[in-house]
Write a structure and sequence with these properties.
By secondary structure, the protein is an alpha+beta fold. It is built from 14 helices and 21 strands. The chain has 3 domains: 176 residues, 2-Layer Sandwich (Beta-Lactamase); 221 residues, PPM-type phosphatase domain (Phosphatase 2c, domain 1), CATH 3.60.40.10; 133 residues, Histidine kinase-like ATPase, C-terminal domain (Heat Shock Protein 90).
Length: 565
């Protein structure tokens, strides 16, 4: 089969080629347009082929821009380069072609009131005849094909040319549309990959699930590729657990970036504060300096004391946390301050609550605003019903069941869903290895040391770690005997040992006069007196220790912690 192309210049009014050959040539042009997915290449190919096909002196392709108010010359061929020329769609013959979405043929521009000779005057080019056809796809005009001055004959376009240019314009419009669609698909794929990467980064910002006995559990299910919700929790060196749950205003990448910034600030600064209100004030100042106009963060942020019963927290404009009391009653705890990122001078008051044997539920509005099977908002009352149906479950399982009901099949998730459960029961689930009450006398320590060693080995500690725990407990007991009440303590000591799968916890209580915590901190080595090395040993041997507020009726309480692994 011959691959020789017909001479385009032979096609015209007076051509001897029949309609079949003309159609074959048009098919070739359409195939060339369809094979190009690059918009610039498509336009350049189209304009060159059209000028040759129609035997014109010049040709241009104008595309609509600026909300379809302007026509911009993207490609042109001929003696004058008008690429980049902008025309008001309300003016000129090209604009009329768009407005009426119909071919415009002006055989003699001197007799047309719509023709503007501005370009001719500035370039020296002489326009005699114009032929314009709208570039339309599915009834939508995207631009105009313009041909100037026919070379053959009398130099004027005729009705047959008008018929042919409609076909060419239709082919060009489809080619341009396909090229734009290809660009759009490439851009869409690029954005999809970027969103996937952003989602992966967000997942890594969420805390790693802990063992079942950890007092905090959380879940996050984004409505879209990235989430504006976040939560976090982690144990601090002094035994406290820091937690937060937040919702960033808005959607999409802007909200995700603000989420990442806020989460990173909180994780970095939480170790330096004991008052959650002061922590939020510091983060709020940073966000007010950098957050985009109108964006803010609602958040509940706080600390859980080592015993797991006392929580101090601050609520900045977030949904009221829901406290479930040990008797089954519920109470909402309203916010005490506006969101972060609004006013850099905002103060955030701290609240305290005792969980006793209850739980605290934190959640975003994606939970309470989700729709029930009856297409009504779940609201707080509906959430309470879901909570009540799963109180016997472990914390993580309970949250998963609640979210499964909210995201049941056939339900469209309209917002991010994020929940956190803080449960005092998780502390009760920790295994008590032993408890012993003994006289504060040195001769009792031998039996205590043996039981501590056996309990540590039972919990999974190595012999070396068990020996370190024994020495730390021995030093702590000796300090109680030597220093309590500024003299020999003749009372009793209560020792409890717990194992929560992650660490071994030793709690020592006595009934001596309460001590000033500042007096039991390690002194500088050059200030030590005989018998004053106990706290230094404990510092070296244990991961952390804290002098807790003693329960009512008790004098002092010391908690020692050591990771089992």
């Amino acid at each position: 089969m011959s691959t020789k192309r017909p001479d385009l210049r032979l096609i015209g009014k007076d051509s001897d080629h029949d309609a079949v050959e003309q159609l074959a040539l048009l098919a070739e042009l359409i195939q060339e347009f369809a094979s190009s997915l690059n918009l610039d290449e498509t336009l350049q190919t189209a304009i060159e082929r059209f000028m040759a096909y129609m035997d014109a002196e010049a040709a241009s392709i104008f595309l609509l821009e600026n909300k379809d108010r302007e026509l911009v010359c993207y490609k042109c061929v001929g003696p004058v380069d008008i690429a980049g020329l902008r025309l008001n769609v309300a003016e000129g013959i090209v604009g009329k072609c768009v407005r009426e979405q119909a071919c415009q043929m002006v055989r003699d521009v001197r007799r047309s009131r719509d023709f503007s000779g501005t370009i001719d005057h500035s370039s020296g080019f002489s326009t005699r005849s114009l032929l314009c056809a709208p570039l339309s796809v599915r009834g939508e005009c995207i631009g105009v094909l313009e041909l100037v001055n026919k070379r053959s004959g009398d130099g004027l376009f005729d009705p047959q040319d008008q018929t042919l240019v409609r076909v060419l314009a239709s082919a060009a419009a489809l080619a341009i549309h396909n090229a734009r669609m290809a660009d759009s698909l490439v851009e869409h794929e690029r954005l999809r990959r970027e969103f996937e990467l952003a989602r992966e980064i967000q997942r890594k910002l969420l805390p790693v699930p802990h063992e079942t006995r950890f007092p905090v559990a959380g879940v996050n299910f984004p409505a879209y590729e990235v989430s504006g919700d976040f939560y976090d929790f982690f144990r601090l060196p002094d035994g406290r657990i820091y937690f937060n749950l937040a919702d960033v205003s808005g959607k999409g990448m802007n909200a995700a970036l603000l989420m990442a910034q806020t989460s990173s600030l909180l994780r970095c600064l939480a170790r330096d504060y004991t008052d959650p209100g002061k922590l939020l004030a510091r983060v709020n100042q940073a966000l007010c300096e950098t957050a985009s106009r109108g964006m803010f963060v609602t958040i509940v942020s706080g600390y859980i004391e080592p015993q797991g019963r006392l929580i101090c927290f601050s609520n900045a404009g977030h949904q009221p946390p829901l406290q479930r009391h040990c008797d089954g009653g519920f109470a909402e705890i309203p916010a005490g301050a506006p969101p972060l990122g609004v006013d850099p001078e905002t103060e955030f008051p701290m609240s305290e609550l005792s969980l006793m044997d209850g739980s605290l539920y934190l959640f975003t509005d994606g939970v309470t605003e989700s729709l029930t099977a009856e297409h009504k908002p779940l609201d707080v009352s509906g959430l309470i019903e879901l909570i009540e149906s799963g109180t016997a479950l472990e914390s993580s399982e309970q949250l998963e069941n609640i979210v499964a009901e909210i995201r049941r099949p056939g339900t469209r998730q309209r917002d991010d869903i994020t929940m956190m459960l803080i449960s005092s029961r998780c502390h009760q689930l920790s295994k008590k290895l032993f408890q012993q009450r003994f006289s504060a006398q040195p001769e009792c320590l031998q039996d205590v040391r043996a039981k501590v060693n056996a309990a540590a080995i039972q919990a999974g500690c190595s012999a070396k770690v068990a020996a370190q725990i024994v020495l730390a407990v021995d030093e702590a007991c000796t300090n109680i005997m030597q220093h309590a009440d500024q003299g020999d303590y003749a009372g009793e000591i209560l020792l409890e040992m717990h194992n929560n799968d992650e660490e071994l916890i030793c709690v020592l209580k006595d009934w001596a006069a309460p001590l000033d915590p500042s007096q039991i901190q390690p002194r500088a080595l050059d200030e030590l007196r005989p018998g004053g090395l106990g706290t230094h040993f404990i510092n070296e041997l244990m991961d952390n220790w804290i002098f807790d507020e003693a329960p009512q009726g008790c004098g002092n309480c010391l908690t020692l912690r050591k990771h089992i692994a």
